[in-house]
Structure formats: structure tokens, C-alpha cells
Design brief:
The protein is α/β, with parallel strands linked by helices. The protein has helices at about 30-50, 75-85, 105-115, 130-135, 155-170, 185-195, 225-230, 255-260, 265-270, 290-295, 300-320, 320-325, and strands spanning about 65-70, 90-95, 120-125, 145-150, 175-180, 200-205, 220-225, 235-240, 275-280. Helix content is about 35%, strand content about 15%. The strands form two sheets. Strands 7-6-5-8-9 form a five-stranded parallel beta sheet. The structure holds phosphoric acid mono(formamide)ester.
């Protein structure tokens, strides 16, 4: 499959001949046209993935991709694995629980070890913010951040943007409310960067202890009242309480949290009639979201987000390995 963006596409700078980044460490540092380019490329993989005949392309045949996950994952790990395989690559998964990390090997020694195996791309999830950047400095191939601590989860923000774009036609001008544990959420952080770059109005809401005031510096509107935050909005993005990253008590109880910040049908009626309901998963039903809302066949895009995740990760793997494949450039 060819890279079918031409340099006379007015959304992309005329002088650019290739995607100008070696790694995908975060949305911070990307420009809006770079995001739009990834999303544009993902569209062709959406079509391939929906195809009944064959879901296989051989663009990455002969390449080796290592997925090194130091934290649990269902969606991100499996979709990166499927993405690599659908592009014809050999994909190997390293689960930290069964690795020599358990014997005391350091993160840097692990990175050097993976590098010695001549991987063509390494996808990393790690519990510490900045760990993925650290590894990218030690290896010779592109590194893709699959979530690092509370820092960033760039492919999640990209797949969310693609989902909004496909459902709403555009991200620009949409009012997006992100609700929940903003403080500990790498999904929220990457989405705030991405949605602002693409021209959305972003509102954040949650218990005062979980919504940092410093976010206002990013042009985000901060609320502590859920009803006010979702009034008239186009998209509601619900987040899970990141209990594993909380030290101390940030909320009195799950029950009280649900009472104040749980998304139910009554609250949903405050948003626009065609509001899009999103959640990166995994969901805690009955805590941040009721099943009647999460499973709403018309308004919920939660399974579509998972579908877009495969396409976006195919686009990222394809774009970042072009240099190694000598296929750099738009066409
Ligand atoms: N959204 C997300 O990152 O899900 P997983 O933890 O299952 O990968």
C-alpha cells in the first residue's frame, strides 16, 4: 500500500518530505498537521480492518516489533500486536512479570538487551513518567509510548481524535468534557494536548483533589460541578479512578464519587442530543459510568474507540518505520 498523501495537500507543509520524528513519545512536541497526517493515514487502515476478504498488508514484512509492557494492558497491547501482524511484521511481546526485571535487571539494561536483538520498533508501557523517553535514548530504533506513568498515552489520544472526527466530521469546534481522575490520567493529559491542538473547546471536571488548577494554563476550562461541565457539550469522555496511582485518599468513597460524578441517563440529558460518549477503558461500571449509558447503541463510541486503536497503531508503526524501510516521503 502506498503513502497516498501528496505534498500539494494544503493541510501539510509544502516543504515537508517526511514525518519529522523518530519516536512517538507524546502528543506534546507534535504539531497539528503531524497529528492530522497520522489520522489521515489511519483512515486507510480502518478500511483494511473492516475488509471481509483480507486484513493483511505486507508493508512491514521482515521487520521485528517488540511490545515491552511493564504494566497491565488489554486494549493497547493487543491492538499493537494486531497492528504489527496486520502489516506483516514479526511481533514479540515481553511481559515484565515474566522477564528478568523480576531478577533485578534495570530498565536501562533491559533497553540495551532489547536493542541488541535489532528490533525495528519498540512499543513500551511503563509505570514511571519519563521511562519511555529514557529507553528511547538507549536504542537505535523508533520507540512508541504505550503509556508512561501519569505522563502521556499518545496513541490513545490519537484514536480518540479519529473516533471524534469520524463521528462528528471534525474535532475543531467540538466541546469536549473530560470527567474523572484528571490528576493521575495520562489519557487526559494526551487528550488535552491533542484536542486543543485540533481546535476543540476542552472542559475538565472532577473532585477538586483530582483536577489540578494548573491545567487552566493550557486553555482548559476547569469545573468541579459535573452538571455544569456537561451542559451543551458534544463529547463526554469518562475516566476511570486510577487507584493504583493514588497515594492517600482523594475521594471519600466510590459511592459518593458515583453520586457526584457518575454518568447516568439523567445527567446525559444536559448535553447535546447527539452527544458522543467515550471511555478509554477499562470501565468501572456503576462507579464512573452506568451500563445504560456505556452500552447506548446510538451515543456510545466505546467499542469504536477500540476499533480505531488498531488503525491508529498501524499508522504509527508504518510511519515510524519508513526510514528503516527506505520508503520515507509522502508518496
Ligand atoms: N485504554 C487503555 O490504555 O487500555 P488498556 O490499559 O487495556 O491498554
Amino acid at each position: 500500500m502506498t503513502n497516498d498523501i501528496s505534498t500539494n495537500d494544503s493541510r501539510f507543509p509544502s516543504g515537508a518530505s517526511a514525518f519529522p520524528h523518530t519516536h512517538l513519545l507524546g502528543i506534546a512536541g507534535l504539531q497539528s498537521w503531524e497529528i492530522l497526517y497520522i489520522l489521515d493515514q489511519a483512515e486507510k487502515w480502518v478500511k483494511l480492518n473492516k475488509s471481509k476478504a483480507s486484513k493483511r498488508d505486507e508493508s512491514l514484512a521482515g521487520l521485528t516489533i517488540i511490545n515491552a509492557f511493564f504494566e497491565n494492558s488489554t486494549r493497547t497491547l493487543l491492538s499493537f500486536e494486531i497492528a504489527g501482524k496486520r502489516l506483516g511484521a514479526d511481533v514479540v511481546n515481553m511481559h515484565a512479570a515474566q522477564s528478568s526485571i523480576k531478577k533485578g535487571e534495570t530498565l536501562i539494561d533491559t533497553a540495551v538487551t532489547l536493542n541488541a536483538m535489532h528490533a525495528d520498533a519498540i512499543v513500551i508501557r511503563h509505570g514511571s513518567s519519563g521511562a519511555v523517553q529514557l529507553i528511547s535514548d538507549k536504542v537505535d530504533c523508533p520507540v512508541l509510548n504505550a503509556g508512561d506513568g501519569t505522563n502521556e498515552h499518545p496513541t490513545q489520544a490519537l484514536l480518540d481524535a479519529l473516533t471524534i472526527m469520524r463521528r462528528k466530521g471534525n474535532v475543531e469546534g467540538q466541546i469536549v468534557t473530560i470527567c474523572g481522575d484528571i490528576l493521575h490520567s495520562r489519557v487526559a493529559r494526551s487528550n488535552i494536548y491533542c484536542l486543543k491542538l485540533l481546535g476543540a473547546e476542552v472542559r475538565v471536571v472532577g473532585p477538586p483533589s483530582l483536577v489540578p488548577k494548573t491545567l487552566e494554563a493550557f486553555g482548559v476550562k476547569r469545573y468541579t460541578n459535573f452538571e455544569q461541565a456537561i451542559e451543551g457539550c458534544d463529547v463526554i469522555m469518562m475516566l476511570r479512578l486510577q487507584n493504583e496511582r493514588m497515594q492517600g485518599d482523594f475521594i471519600p468513597s466510590g459511592r459518593e464519587y458515583n453520586f457526584l460524578y457518575g454518568l447516568n441517563e439523567q445527567r446525559l440529558s444536559l448535553a447535546k442530543d447527539d452527544v458522543l460518549i467515550m471511555h478509554p477503558g477499562p470501565m468501572n461500571r456503576g462507579v464512573e459510568i452506568e451500563s445504560s449509558v456505556a452500552d447506548d447503541a446510538k451515543l456510545s463510541a466505546i467499542t469504536e474507540q477500540v476499533e480505531m486503536g488498531v488503525a491508529v497503531r498501524m499508522a504509527c508503526l508504518d510511519i515510524l518505520t519508513r526510514k528503516a524501510r527506505n520508503t520515507e516521503g509522502w508518496t
